[in-house]
Each structure stands twice: as structure tokens, then as C-alpha cells.
Amino acid sequence: MSKKAILSLTVLLLVVAGLLPVLSMLLKSMVVNCSFSLEAYKGVLTSSRQWKLMGNSLKLASLVTMLTVVAGVPTGLVLEKTDLPLRGLLIPFFVVPLLIPPYILAVSWADLLGRDGLLAHSFGYSPALTNLLFGLPGCVFVLFSIFLPIPILLTTAFLRTIDPGLEEAGRLVTGWWGVIRGITLPLIMPGILLSAMLVFLLSFGEFSVPTFLRYQVYPVESFTQFSAFYNFKAATASALPLALVTLLLLFGETFFLKKHTYQLRPSPHHQGSLRIELKGHKPWVFALITGLVAVLVVVPIVVLVLQSGGLQWYQEAMRRAGFSLVRSVIYAAIGATLLTVLGFLTGYIVQRRALSCWRYVDSLTLFLFALPSTVVGIGLVSLWNTPWTNLIYGTPVIIIMGYLAKYTALASRILVTQLAQVPLSLEEAAQIAGAKWPRRMLFIITPLSRKGLAVCWVVGYLFALRDTGITMLVYPPGLETLPVRIYTLMANGSPQLVAALCMIMISVTVLPMALWLIPQRKGLDEGCRV
Amino acid sequence: MKVVEFKAVSKSYNGTRVLKDIDFQVEKGERLILLGPSGCGKTTILRLIAGFIAPDQGSIEIGGRVVSEPGRIVVPPEERNLGMVFQDLALWPHLSVKGNLEFGLKAKGFSKAERDQRIEKMLEMVGLREYANRKPGELSGGQQQRVALARALVLEPTVMLMDEPLSSLDTELNIRLRREVIALHKSLGFTMIYVTHDREEAFEIATRVMVMSEGEIVKVGSVKEVRNSLTSISPLIPS
Ligand SMILES: Nc1ncnc2c1ncn2[C@@H]1O[C@H](COP(=O)(O)OP(=O)(O)OP(=O)(O)O)[C@@H](O)[C@H]1O
Ligand SMILES: [Mg+2]
Q: Where does residue A515 rank: exposed (0-12), middle (13-18), buried (19+ CB within 10 A)?
């Protein structure tokens, strides 16, 4: 098949997996008894309850965004630019909360601070503490710990693109403080804005944490309408405002950052980049950062380990959810593989501008990633829940479609960054030597992108594995994944069992990450020596 | 016999005309040098011949066949049977020297026996037989240059396009490789279009020189003719 045909098919797949469901949902919500009607929306717009929920959601998302950016950007700066000891090791720790199903952290904090929590058992029950957790402050805190890695990672990634010469030039005339404020921060501003936007949208769309911590937010509404009342029209109508907020923000983003396509190209001279010497500040900066990791990451995990108690709970967990675990791993592996292929082709379209619609392709993937999972999920159901498409709706295929719709943006952006490092001339040399596009892709571009492809697969695997929002809405009966199984068991399972399940979930996430990071690190060290 | 022909070719980037109504022909077997200062459009001409970009106006013929029309690539690069040595060489870093030579032969469907025989012969000619299994990163600058040459020549192209292939080498190596290029050309007899901004290099290699400036051809002729008229155009050519 020709280049154009394959790339067009790629776009078609994205449209079918992501855009069509959303459009179908929109259409169906406006048609009542075969005629156009906005009846369903009237309910949404006139209910004061809905307005209150929307207010809550916006408040929550704004607070989380502010806090993560304020804490994340300096942390990223410190981890990337200073001589802080162990800084390479700290980043993976910060990332763990982002890679596990979000509600796990809420469960853990409830195990610690709740009415029957560990603290209550040891020191007596303190309602004030519990009330703090079950409400806005608790929600903000838990979502903060989950999304903090986003500004940290984007800050470090954008810092790596800065040509050290720019900072050196500034360093000659002013101190580090002046350089960071006057040169470094402005240069990484697109990254900071991007991270703010992502955190806002992701915390805006998150519903498992607020549900568990009993803070009422908007996305819960459409989820409840859908799963509790089977009121599809109401669910759709209340999903639409979510889609609108997402669109609005994305337009804002493209408006402010017209020229940037977030093509992160590590500066070739990056190795020679200047490092800030912390000198006398080292101890307290180190204490601050490790303290942050301890509170946000280590404490919740330790709590879960303590709460899960003995081995018998793990055996019970495997008995009750073993199949879900196996399914989770299989679906995630298939999802990651397809995401890598789709992300590679999409990344190629965007980076090489191989189709004239490349900009729209890029925006579509980002839109779908930012769209709350409930919207994507309800859209998929709306499109495929027909008697003729049971092959999709009644099988795990629909879960995989959900992964592709939601996470292609991640895959694509990783590979755009990778492809930017494969010079165009290498591809042209293959072309002039007589190789048609598939051969060039397979034997030249793919091997040269293998590192990015590996990163993409792992990221795809982790995000598919952690997915709760979409899977919960679309999974065929009896085929639920582990995060969904835990979520349902949370309602009536014993806390020990749930804690054990959460620990199992964390292990299957963190183990592959560790296995993968260790050889990376060795490779890096060797690279430094050469 | 004309191998390549430009007919009133123009090309713009973002509204700036970088080639203005260019007409020229390349004869079979000659060594045509494109000489001109940085930014005058030399690489653009090679990329037009290769088919990586299409002209805005005019047409391009290779072997008497129209390969590019305004805004349209009629024959894609992979079917033009050209060889190209890139400014940055563009050796595939993940393939061995042999792998680099073999890639195009495989793409064109040669049998294993024929591939091996051709590669053997080519590596012999450029003196790299012992290096067949090395990766490009493990070779010196001059050796890499030879691999790039060999990779293009092993396909027996109708035309070789060479974009400042020697500019990154030190003077001594540059001069030695000029001679090797000429020797290779003499023994294989291909047609060659060679881009440089170095006057000495141009005059040593050329059988014919085409001097460019700001997207226009200011002089075409034998080395002698161009050298003689040099005073009038010399401000345009860096030495
Ligand atoms: N892809 C492009 N987009 C925009 N402008 C371009 C592009 N490619 C070339 N140009 C412009 O066209 C003009 C001619 O470029 P070209 O690369 O052909 O010059 P050149 O003669 O090869 O120069 P050099 O000796 O520096 O390689 C230059 O002004 C260049 O900036
Ligand atoms: Mg050039």
C-alpha cells in the first residue's frame, strides 16, 4: 500500500475510534423520537444543581492546577538543573502516583485518616482530619499528588531543549536567579502552559477520586445518569459541557501558542549544559524534595502495605480478582502495541507534515486525550451499541478502541520528539536508493526510532493498565479489568482486601517500570563514559 | 545526449523566489559543477532533480521523460534511478557499510548473489573491503565519504547528484578525494552533477561549470571559459 493510503487509514482509524463516538453521542442527544430536540439540554441548563456541580469542578481543577504548577516547575528545575544528589532517582518516584489508577491514592489516604483508619486506631478518631480529607481539601491534595509529575516532567523535558549557550550568555551578566527568571523560565513557558492546561483538564475530568472522597463534581453526574439510571440522553447532555470546556481550553492553547507544536528537540549540546551548584542550600533543598516524595508517594504505599495486613488477603485478592489482573495485563499489552503503531504513524504525519491535515490530526489526538473519560466512554457506547456491531460492543475490542482514542496523543507526541531526531536526509537517501515508503519506514525509520518506540510502548502499557474511566463505561459483562474490579469491590469489600488489591495493582505497574529503568540507567552511564 | 533538462523552472519558498526561470541541460557522461555562494539555490536544484520537491513553474526531464511538472511530482524519487551524496552524507547509522550498500540493491530486487558481487566490486574500488562490517560511526571522515559514494554508485545510477560532498573534510583529504572522484567517474562513466562553493574544487573536477547567483545562472561553460570570464563575475563567487 502506498504512503498516502496507509497514512489516510491512520487518520480514519483515529476518527472512527475517537471523533465519531463523540459526534454520534452529540447527534443522538439532540434527536428525540426522530426529530430534532434540545429537550435533554434544557434539563442541564435549568438545573441549579448542575451549575453548582460545574462550579465545584472548576474550583477543584483550578486549585489543583495552581498548586501543581507552583510546586512542579521549581521541582523540575531543581531535578534537572542543579547538582542535587540522587536527582535521577527521584523523578521515577514522583511519577508513580500518575501511573496507578487515581482512586488508589484516595483509598490509601482514607485508610490512614478515615474513621476506621490507622491513625484513628493508634491515636483516637479525629473528625476534623477526616472531614478535611472527605471534601474539597482532600480532593485537591490527592489530585495534586497524582498530577504533580506532569509539570515536573514537562519542565525537565523543555529544559533539555535549551541551548546552553543562551544561559551561559546570561550567566556572564547576572547570577543564576536572574538567568532563571530572565532566560530559562521564558524559554520553557510553552511547557509550563501546556502542563497547566493538561493538569486542569485531567483533574476536571477525573471522577473516581471525587466520588470516593464525596466531593460532588460534574463528571460524576453523567457517569451516574449513565450507569445508575441508564438515562442515556441525560448522561450525554451532561457530558457535553465537559467537551465544551475541553474545546475552549484547547482553542485557548492554540491561540496563545500558535507557533509551537511541542516539538521537543533535545539540544545537541545539552550534555554541556551549566549546572547550578546548590552549595550551602543543598541540605534543605534535598530535605524538601525527599520530604515531598515521602509524603506524596511513600506514605500512601506504606499505608496500603500496613492495611493489607497478611498474606491471606493477597490470596483472597487473587482469588477474587486474578482473572481481572490477567485480562488487564493482556489488554494493556495489546493496547500498548496498537498505540505504538498508531502513535508512530500519527507522529510521522505530524512531524514530517506528511498529510496536509497534519495540524488537525495533532489537535484531534490532544482533544481526545484531554476529553474526560466519561465523554469518550459514553460516546463509544453510543456509537457501537447496535445489534450489528456486537463484535465490537460485546468484546474487548471496544476497550482497546477506548485506549486508542484516549492515549494516542501521548504515543504520538513521544514519537514526534523521536522522529525530530531522525534527519530527513536519512529517509531521502533511502528513497533515492529506490525504496518505497513502507520499506523506508520498516528498515530505516523504525530501527532509528527504536528507543522512542520502546518508551512509547511502556507509556502506552502503563496508561492502558491504569485506565479506569473509559473501561468502566464500556467493558463487556464479565470482562472487567483490575482497576474496574477494585473500584467495584471498594463499595463492599473489606478494607484489607481492597488494600491488597491496590498493592497488586501498584506492583504490576511499578515492576515493569523498574525492570525497564534499570537497564536504561546502565546504558546512560555507559553513554556518559564514552 | 541530454540526460537532465530544466525548462523555465522557478521555485519559491514562502513567497521568496529562490530559483528564477532556470534553463539548463546536462549531457551524458559529463561532470557538471554548480558553483555559487551560499544560499544561491544549488541544493534546491539538486532536490528538484531528485524529486524531493516540485517546481512552481516549468518542467524537469530526465532521460527525455517529464519527471516533474508545476506543483506535481510525476515520477517519484525512488523511481528516478539517481544516486545522491548528501551534504551530511546521511549514512544509515544502524547498518554496516555492507548494509548501507545492500539496502538499495534489495529495494530494487537484486538477487543475493548479484548483490554480493556488486558490493564486493564497489568496496574494492573505493578501498573499503576490510571495513564491510563496520558501522559508519566507526569510520574516519574520509572513509565515511567513500561509503556514501559507494552506496550511491553501487546502484549504477543514470545521474549522480553530489551536494558539497567534500566540504566537511580538511584540505588535504579534500584534495585527495577529488582525485578519487574523478578516477571513479572515469572508470564508471556516470553523469555527475556536483555542487560546491569552492572555486578550486570546481575547476579541478569539472568538465563544465555552471555559475549561479541569487537563483539565476550567470555563466555556463568549460573550465577555461569560466576561468577567463572570472574577473567579471568573480565578486559573486567565493574563492
Ligand atoms: N525548505 C525551505 N524553506 C524555506 N526556505 C528554503 C528552504 N530550502 C531552502 N530555502 C531557501 O532557499 C534559498 C536557496 O537555498 P539552497 O539550500 O538551495 O542554497 P545553497 O545554494 O545550497 O546554499 P548552501 O551553499 O548554503 O548550501 C536560501 O535562501 C534558503 O534559505
Ligand atoms: Mg546547499
A: exposed
Kind of pairing, strands B208-213 and B216-221? Answer: antiparallel
Q: Is B44 in the pocket of ligand 1 (CB under 6 A)?
A: yes
CA B63 to chain CA centroid, Å, is: 16
**A374 close to A473: Cβ distance less than 8 angstroms:** yes
Closest CA of chain A from B94, distance in Å: 7
Give the pLDDT confidence of A220-262 residue by residue, as tens digits: 877 887 777 777 777 787 788 888 888 888 888 777 765 555 5
ipTM for the whole complex: 0.92
Q: A356: which chain B residues are within 8 Å (Cβ-Cβ)?
A: none
For chain A, domain boundaries: 1-32+308-530, 59-307
At the topology level of CATH, where does A59-307 sit?
Answer: MetI-like fold (1.10.3720)
Could you read off the pLDDT of A399-458 as tens digits, one per residue?
Answer: 999 999 999 999 998 999 889 889 999 999 999 999 999 999 999 999 999 999 998 998
Grid coordinates standing for A420?
525530530
Q: Write a three-state SS string for A3-53.
A: HHHHHHHHHHHHHHHHHHHHHHHHHHHHEECCEECCHHHHHHHHCHHHHHH
- B42 CA closest ligand 1 atom index: 21
- Superfamily of chain region A1-32+308-530: MetI-like (1.10.3720.10)
Mark the residues whose beta carbon lies below 5 A from ion ligand 2: B 43
Nearest CA to ligand 1 atom 31: B39
Q: Where in A82-210 does DSSP place strands (E)?
A: none
Of the ranges A158-162, A381-385, B202-206, the best mean pLDDT one: B202-206
Please indicate whether residue B42, judged by its CB atom, sits closer than 6 Å to ligand 1: yes
Mutate to test the interface with B, among A432, A445, A450 (most CBs of B within 10 A): A432
Residues of chain A positioned with their CB less than 8 A from the CB of B104 = 430, 433-435
| Interface contact B112, partner A, CB < 8 A | no
Strand runs (DSSP E) across A375-509, as ranges? none
CA distance B126 to B130: 11
Inter-chain contacts counted by CB atoms under 8 A, chains A and B: 64
pTM: 0.88
